[in-house]
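Deliverable D4.2, example record:
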Amino acid sequence: SYEMQPLYRDFCPPLVPQQVLQYLINPKSRRLVKNRLKRLKQLYGKTFHLRPLNRKVVRMERMSTRRKKAYLIRFLRAFCTYHRDFCCFNVYRDAVERINPVTDKKIMALSKANRTLYEFLLPHEQEMGERPIMNHTIIKADLRGSTDITHRMNRRGLNPASYFGLNFFDPITEILSEYDAHKVFIEGDAIILCIVEQEDTPSGWYSVARACGMAINMLMIISRINKKSQEHRLPVLELGVGICHRAAAPTFLFDGGRRIMISPAINLADRLSGCDKSVRRIIQKNRSPFNLFVFQGKADTEMSKTTDDQFIRYNVNGIELNEAGFRKLAQEIDLKQFYGDIPDLQLEKVRLYTGKFPTKSNRYQRLVIREADVPVVNPKDFSELHFSHRKYYEVCTSPTLYRFTQKLSR
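Output generated by the structure prediction step:
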């Protein structure tokens, strides 16, 4: 093979390299090669002289042992190089099979939104895109008794959709920018909002605090609207709000050009915003400054078998914050703790936390959080058995509590 390299191109085409090689090493194949060249002489319009090949045959027969050894060493080096490159190729192929090059724009958008797209761009191709999401906080606001309100308004010939839109959805939309929140979706009588925290933007790392402030503002709006509604003998609105923080980025899917968020925090916020009808019948007139009460109707052994939220709640114009959200809030702002009695409100052994946070417009807003133990009750009559080791957290809205904690902070 090495000897034929300088001259095989003179005969290929019409021959192939293998035929030239056979001519040099196999006397029986020489006649076949000669006949083939004679047949192709007219087609190519020239004569192929075999003298160079014949001289090469004689030279190979007279080749010295030293030259043969030199060719052997050259072959071994080439073979080892080939073996090394083939092993590297297999490593490379295995690595490439783990990568899915994306060309479809929909898949690129989906992968980019979920932070599973790796882009290797030249400097002029790079764009200032959206910063990656670190974590997020979900706010779920659920209207109470919307079915009954719809029935009553239809009976009076009024449009319940306009009533909900003008008195609930539109006012909430107007305050979204103040807390850097955005809508996830609206489902009939409920709205789900989200506040995200992005990398390299420490000025926006107040997702839980702003979610609590947003929820308080929502209830204040509903309270003002209810006063006007009562003057016109229209139904009053009642809310239940759940706030759930998750220390991870949400995932997304796309419905056409619309991005849809998927997160376990949405499901938990839905539970936190709920209100059990049986509990509400028992607590018909709540004269307490608190609007949230959480009960455990099952034994600890049953509760520990699942991670699902199985608590029983009374949440009428209340705001519940999950435990992870409270821990995150304690990192965001300086919370001052109070534990004791409040005679003005006839409250005993109350644990409160208070602190201020900046809104998007750098206006500071105070928060008051109540920490309480979850009582274990008899699910039949809700008689209290004992207190569990679990706790729940309410974002308070009572003006009296805010005046009290403001005096303490001073």
